[in-house]
Design a protein that fits this description.
- This protein is mainly α.
- Among the domains are: about 35 residues, no CATH class; about 55 residues; about 80 residues, no CATH class.
- The strands form 3 sheets. The protein has a two-stranded antiparallel ribbon with strand order 1-2. The chain has a two-stranded antiparallel sheet with strand order 3-4.
- It is elongated.
- The termini are far apart.
Length: about 280
């Protein structure tokens, strides 16, 4: 028994109600409703399928290869696709070979400068400018170029100003001075001792005990700890000697002072630290 479409009367699949175009029109009229696909079972493996199919995808593929007519159609389609790819590849190779010849390149350039070619180019450019996405991209590029031009003009004006030029030259001189006197070139260089790590015993708890012992006061200038924690200094400048008699609390400025003239500061702290302990 044939089944007919409810709207137009065409012969349709037995399980459906409307043909494809009538169904599309119906869904446009009722956008809020959801499509409920019917559930059926595969003819071969009895797996549940959603939709109007008879077989599941795997069984349908097997059926296609078993049927001789369908198999021939698939093979012919694959062959034609392979032939098209081969033709395209050959065409590309031929064009590359032509463009390697300088005479052909000149002819191609001349042909592209003809009035007909120019008119085609102008038509293409107009069609591109009608596309809003392409237009937005081009406007962004032009804006970037304008900004660059403005920045370059501003920099030229700055460099023409003698005061600004003098400032920049002093900055460059300082940088060159730093490079000349950094690392081993510096007279205070001590084979990278400052970069060496502290010993395992130099922990947070040990530093806290030293600060508590010194009553949170710098032992050189007598400033109380305010906001920033006091530094804990090694008297003999040995980072692995973490005994409490070798440690003393200092503020940041006094700690920087002790990095110069080390022999003097070593003797000074030994004498003063003995007095403190007594």
């Amino acid at each position: 028994m044939n089944k007919f479409c409810v709207d137009c009367g065409k012969i349709i699949y037995p399980k459906s109600i409307r043909c494809h175009p009538c169904a599309a029109k119906w869904w446009r009229r009722h956008p809020g409703k959801k499509l409920i696909r019917p559930e059926t079972t595969c003819m071969d493996c009895n797996i549940i399928i959603k939709g109007y199919g008879i077989r599941c995808p795997s069984c349908a593929q097997k059926y296609k290869w078993q049927n001789e007519n369908l198999r021939k159609q698939i093979i012919n389609a694959l062959k034609s696709r392979a032939q098209d790819i081969n033709v395209r590849m050959k065409h590309r190779q031929a064009t590359k070979a032509l463009f390697q010849n300088p005479e052909y390149k000149l002819k191609h350039k001349i042909s592209m400068n003809t009035p007909r070619a120019k008119s085609i180019k102008s038509q293409l450019s107009k069609s591109r400018w009608n596309d809003p996405k392409w237009r937005a991209k081009q406007e962004e590029i032009f804006n970037r170029e304008e900004r660059r031009a403005k920045l370059s003009m501003a920099m030229i004006k700055k460099w023409n100003d003698p005061k600004w030029r003098a400032k920049q030259e002093t900055i460059y001189e300082r940088l060159n001075y730093r490079e000349k006197f950094s690392g081993p070139n510096n007279p205070n260089w001590r084979n990278g001792e400052s970069r060496k790590p502290y010993g395992k015993g130099f922990t947070i708890s040990l530093r806290k005990k030293i600060r508590q012992r010194d009553k949170y006061i710098c032992q050189l200038c007598g400033i109380n700890e305010n906001g920033r924690k006091l530094d804990v200094h090694h008297i003999d400048y040995d980072k692995n000697n973490n005994s409490p008699n070798n440690l003393i609390s200092l503020c940041a400025s006094c700690h920087i002072k002790t990095s110069h003239n080390r022999n003097y500061w070593r003797e000074y702290f030994i004498v003063n630290f003995q007095l403190i302990n007594s």
